[in-house]
Amino acid sequence: MLITNLKIKNFRNYNEQEISLNENINIFYGDNAQGKTNIIESIYVASIGKSFRTSKDKELIKINEKMAIIEIDFKKIDRSGKIKLIIDDKKSVFLNGVRLKKLSELLGNLNIVTFIPRDINILKEGPSDRRRFIDMMIGQLKPNYIYNLNMYLKVLEQRNNYLRQIKYEGKKEDLLEIWDEKLADYAEKISEYRKIYIDRIKEKITDIHENITNKTEKLKIDYSTTCSKKNEFLKQLKDCRKIDILKGYTTRGIHRDDFMIYLDGKEVKIYGSQGQNRTAILSLKMTELQVIKEEIGEYPILLLDDFMSELDKKRIDNFLSNIENIQVIITCTEKFYETNNKNINKYNFYKVNNGRVEFDLIRESCNLERNDNNGEDGKI
User: Fold this and answer.
1) pTM
2) Quick one: which of 22, 233, 269, 334 has the most CB atoms within 10 Å?
3) Tens digit of each residue's pLDDT (9 = 90 or more) over 271-284
């Protein structure tokens, strides 16, 4: 799977820009606050239907403009496609010229794996970030998972409302069984999906991390859930009913699932350095790549924002040398490449300056030389 062409208009700080990408490694470099992350964000929005930076679509539209447009031409093993997304008062999404009725229909057409600065929070912060990682991975592959998850969250909200009515209005406790039954139904289905994909991650992540770290670190993942079986979950809900009423919310459920990552037997978020945390997340993302590839028969596109931050050169080299047959789009402040110069033709470089992208081509001769080819009319 790969993107052949990206076109954005009035998106963030861009007027109009068209970019042709190669099938290997595409590096967008430049100073901070010039628009590099906006490139990654536009691809993310076209794939997922929403931004990873804001929940307000109007913030995606260039100041003093009324509409933003993202267009992506992509190729898969069995077909080519085009996504067009128009953002104004609402979002309109078109796939191959046909308007989609629901935003959820966009999922799975352009599969991506992202590594953005906030992803360090997957380990360092609360379990909601870790659950979001799992939900996004499975959701791209299994649309029915998103349906069950949304229904679970809807029933959860209804149950929580009724818990508060019992506490403050004296409603009958036995009516909770209606919500418990529905909640347990959806929880069991979600748990089945999560178990399958967590097991796939466990199978792969140790070897992937050893490759990135030259076998200097051993990584393992441990998943914690209380909802694997419906009857067990129903019993927990009943046992915790008094506590739930007192607190006014549901204290057990798949909405409280979590996973931990360990390096050499120690929890990385507590004992690991910033670089080790970042490398562990990178290994998690690379594992996600492999899992998606197994599922759909081809690699998704890898988006890496602020890639150089807090990774030493050795880890970067090890990572890049392990990339094969994957389209990668990277943003960073400096131009860089794997020290193995035989792979230099895998790279496209793009200089980003104040909402403008210019193609910067490097080829290997006796020495590495730089030739600047500036795009015309916004197309590169």
Assistant:
1) 0.84
2) 233
3) 988 888 888 988 99
